Each structure stands twice: as C-alpha cells, then as structure tokens.
Amino acid sequence: MAIKNYKPTTPARRRTSVVDSSNLTKKKREKSLTTRIKKKSGRNNAGKITVRHRGGGARKIYRQVDFKRFKFGEKAGVEAIEYDPNRNARIALVVYEDKTKSYILAANGMKVGDNVVSDEKKVAIKKGNRMPLEFIPQGSMIYNVELEPGKGGKMARGAGTGIVLQNIEGKYAQLKMPSGEIRLVPKKCLASIGQVSNPEYKLVRWGKAGRTRHKGIKPTVRGKAMNPVDHPHGGGEGSQPIGMKHPKTPWGKPALGVKTRRKIWTDKLIVKRRKKRKK
Question: What is the mean pLDDT of the chain?
C-alpha cells in the first residue's frame, strides 16, 4: 500500500491524500457477517452527551470481526482483504475447513491464498497465526493481544500497531507497547504474529473539514473564542491569553498535562510507564 495524492484542482485537493486501496481484493461486504449499528452521537442511555463533538457522518454497517479466534487447530484460508469503515485497519475474510466464514484483523503483508491457524499450543511462526504468548519467540512483533486469557484481543488493534514480546518470566510475559510502556500480561494470553495492516494510515492528510465530518466528528471550538459564561478561558478583548495558570475543561477541571488515568488493579503489572510526549 502507499499514499495517493491528487492533482491540485482545488485548494483542498492540493492538501488531500488517501491510502491507496488497490490491494483490496473484494469491494462488497459479506452480508452474513454484517449488522447495522445505530448512531449515538456521543450520548449515553440517558440521552446526555458524554463524548463531545460527535454526530453526523457517513452511514456505516458493522463487520463482525472475530478478535478471539477460538476455532483451535482448524486451518483458515484467506479469501479476501477488505475495507472496514469502522476501523483504520484492513480486515481479512477467512474460510475454515468446515466452510464457515469469519472476519479477522489482517496482518501487514497478508494476502489472498495464505493459510492461518489459531491454537492453544505452538504453531508455525507465520503472519496471522495465533497462539499463547509462552510459545512465541522473544523479540517477535505481535498484535491483537489479550489482557486476560479467553477474553479476546484488546491491545494493538489499530492500523500499523504492534507490540514487542520482550521476555517470559514466571507466569507473565513482558510486552513493550507502541507507546513505550512496558507491562506484564499472563503468558497464557493469545496473540497474533505480525503487525496490524495499513501502516500508512498515519500519513493521511485529511485536507478539508468535510472529510472529518464524514467520519462523524463535528467542529471543535476553542475555549478562548467563547464568552466567560460558556468557558473558563472565555472573555477578553481580541486575541487575549486564557488568563489563568493552567488550561481547564468547560467544567473547570484541570486539562493538558494532568494525569486522568484511574487506579485499577492492573497498575501493579505495569513495569515502566509510557514516555510523556514533548510539545
């Protein structure tokens, strides 16, 4: 895959780029593996907005991706590589020996005709194969990793992401996350070999506001552009600073640089915290 640029016929086209989709082998979805999803526009079951700046966007049909892959020991042939509007990675349509079909996250470099297998014991070290962490060689790149055995893949599912298996110690495997964080995960957890497909996604330039609206993201207004009644940063004449020691949310809570992660039981399994990004 590669990044595709357009001729600058308009100012927006000049800045727009897309991921080349010539590697996709099937344009239409597998109807038996899809379902409709209702838009929530950032609202919870009580109708209150819990996630701001959400709404509108193109209609999407959800592909039922199998993050668990519990059909152990059965070979699956890759029948197609498809686009999924609900995620930035590509998905692969696989057919098992008993003729059942399933969607899985496609590994980078996976192509039609490949065979993949998932098992509780050791299998071949090959892109897309899935097995417990204890059987994977140290230094390997893995994705779609479980946090708890049997719960399905939770980590490294975005386009181009991958986790490095550093070591196996006792009951745990030591993983280096894409963020630089190092954490322990039970060695019985399943993981897929390789890196998630579509790594060029991070290089896409959206070019214009309309493409962001198609994704279901509404415009974000700066707090300093509002009135004092609407935001703590509001008010002032002209281009004034926010007038306080540190940035705040519209409800007065500290923002930007403040730790918001809640303490949970898995904190004891984090060996090294992720590095703070430099501004």
Answer: 92
| Low-confidence residues of the chain: pLDDT under 70 | 1, 276-279
Q: Could you tell me which CATH number the domain at 3-202 has?
A: 2.40.50.140
The CATH H-level superfamily of 230-279 is Ribosomal protein L2, domain 3 (4.10.950.10)
C-alpha 118/C-alpha 183 separation (Å) is 24
Sheet containing 75-82: give its strands across: 101-105, 91-96, 75-82, 115-117
Q: How far apart are CA 72 and CA 120, in angstroms?
A: 7
CA-CA distances (angstroms) from residue 48 to 43, 51, 231, 236?
5, 9, 19, 31
DSSP string for 189-212: SEEEES-BS-GGGGG----SHHHH
Name the residue ranges covered by the structural domains of the chain.
Answer: 3-202, 230-279
Q: Which strand (E) or helix (H) includes residue 243?
A: none
Phi-psi label, residue 238: left if phi above 0, alpha if psi -120 to 50, beta otherwise: left
Residue 258: which of 267, 245, 246 has the closest Cα? Answer: 246
The predicted structure's pLDDT at residue 256: 87
Question: Could you tell me which of 163, 118, 159 has the C-alpha nearest to residue 140?
Answer: 163
- The structure tokens listed for 201 are 């996604």
